[in-house]
Amino acid sequence: MKRRDFLQISSLSLAALLVDGCSESQKYDVTFLNDMAVGHLVFESSNFSVANTSATKYLIAGGGIAGMSAAYQLRNEDFLLFELSDLLGGSSSGSMYKNIPLCHGAHYDLSYPSNYGGEVSNMLKELSIIRYDRFSDSWKFVDKQYLIPKNRESQTFAHGGFRKDVLPDGATKATFIELMKSFTGSLPMPTRLIDEEHRYLNNLTFLEWLKRHLTLDSDFAEGLDYHMKDDYGAGTSQVSALAGIHYFACRPYYTQPIELFSPPQGNSYFIQRIYDHLPKSRVHTSHLVKRILKNDSGFEVEVVDAIKKEIKKVRCEKIIYAGNKYALKYIYPNDFHIFQNTKYAPWVVANFILNKPWTRDTFWQNEIISNDKSLLGFVDSKAQYSFADSQQVFTVYYCFEPEEREMMSSIEGRKNIFIGRTLDYLENYFKKSLKRHVEKVFIKQMGHAMPIPEKGYLFNDANILRSNPNLAYAGVDTGRLPLLYEAMDSGITACRELEDGHQLF
Question: How far is residue 284's CA from residue 305's CA, in Å, rounded to a whole number?
Fold first, then answer.
């Protein structure tokens, strides 16, 4: 294929990534993890028989961080949780391959200052995940084996050259850090706790705010865009100033050490710890909540068992909906309007299991800044935790534009091209051949991986507008930042919504 034809195919990076003839077409052993086919299951289920009818007090739709946090609050109550995927965790899922833990989504968190909301911190303390440290006045992690050493945290590969940090050093960076320091301690999590005096920052973009306070050169602006896309799914011209400042000021990064906690299975570590405290008979994977209907005593919910190919009807008094909100158009259309304008960033996470490890020094997070803005970089398992001497895992992260969501379904049919191109990026990074060492590849596609916190997005709690006081919403797409702590808090507060029957905060 001629270069001119290649460039004319599409302005979208995913289209260019999947063009044939520009990369080696070697075949790989690939497993796809993809909930984007939910529409096919809904259509197919119209022919399924109804298996049985059961009853429970609480029904939880969705087994991600928010849904599982809600289940933990209700662990001593009568509840049922249904998750479409065969893995719990949603965008924080993980699995095992030959006793090697794999992360298929969010992969780390940081120690929590004492000004963070106590509900989540107390839950994590009960789960023996964190403990309070009086010396630093912060919550630190118990499993020290999963802390990333400072000298191995990260390095940046920017347009063919290496540097220590995403934001290039210089006068602009020094001024920027001083600006961020002025907000340290005043932007806690969950964001519902942020004082009114700072909420005006939600009504302008990060870029608009930055231009009022400093002169941005192109390299520094590119680094800021990278950071915003990495955590929020979009650049400085799209995310709000409050979201952008919160990223740099929610912890005392510039005044004291911050623990970086990253188990090899990523944030599914938190899911497993919660699951260990739940009655297993009440948590069901491979189950799709298909339809929610109001009745005299509460709700009747149709649930599709994707394994048995049958429909279960569940009567319940109250519902916590922690699943993907775009599906409400079909599941519970009464409230779809609440979420219809939310923009979501689609993600693809690819795990490359190598049969031959590197002997070189490794970095945990390897950030890549290039002309392909969708590729964010990769995590190297050898800098995380040496679980095996003979194998190594590179977990590669892509964040695409919302307009590319439908195109993501074509990756499976062109998987060898997609994998080959990704390996081309890694080989350019290492200046060494990798393809012959790839033993297995896992690809996780998430069409609605995270809500983009555009200006005006935060503080618009969906539970204020919900149509039924016995159905509450959880998840970071309820007007929150797409962060672990926020997701957990949303599950906790959704339970309290149902206790009180009205909007709590």
Answer: 9
For 286: left if phi > 0, alpha if psi spans -120 to 50, otherwise beta; the answer is: left
Q: What is the pLDDT of residue 26?
A: 80
Do 139 and 111 meet the contact criterion of CB atoms below 8 Å apart? yes
Q: Tens of pLDDT along 437-484?
A: 999 999 999 999 999 999 999 999 999 999 999 999 999 999 999 999
- For residues 110 and 20, what is the distance between their CA atoms, to the nearest angstrom? 41
Give the pairing of strands 130-133 and 138-141: antiparallel
- Residues with Cβ within 8 Å of 472's Cβ and at least 6 positions away in sequence, in order, are 318, 319, 320, 321, 463, 466, 494, 495, 497, 498
CB 426 within 8 A of CB 376: no
Give 241-261 as a DSSP string.
HHHHHHHHHSS-TTTS---EE
Whether the per-residue pLDDT at 502 is higher than 50: the answer is no
pLDDT digits (tens, 9 = 90+) for 238-260: 999 999 999 999 999 999 999 99
- Is the distance from CB of 252 to CB of 92 less than 8 angstroms? no
Exposure of 495 by Cβ count < 10 A (0-12 exposed, 13-18 middle, 19+ buried)? Answer: buried
Q: Which tokens is 254 given?
A: 């510039």
Do the Cβ atoms of 108 and 480 come closer than 8 Å? no
Average pLDDT over residues 416-426: 94
Q: Report angle CA 205, 211, 214 to the nearest 5 degrees.
A: 135
Segment holding 321, helix H or strand E: strand 310-321
Class of domain 3-34+344-451: alpha beta
Could you say which of 3.40.50.1980, 1.10.150.450, 1.10.405.10, 2.30.30.90 is the CATH number of the domain covering 109-261?
1.10.405.10
Give the burial string for 117-137 (b: 16+ CB within 10 Å, else e): bebbbebbeeeebbeeeeebe
**Cα torsion through 36, 38, 43, 49, rounded to 10:** 150
- Identify the CA nearest to 156 among candidates 350, 396, 377: 377
- The CA-based diameter of the chain, rounded to the nearest angstrom, is 67
Torsion 448-453-456-457 (CA) sign: positive
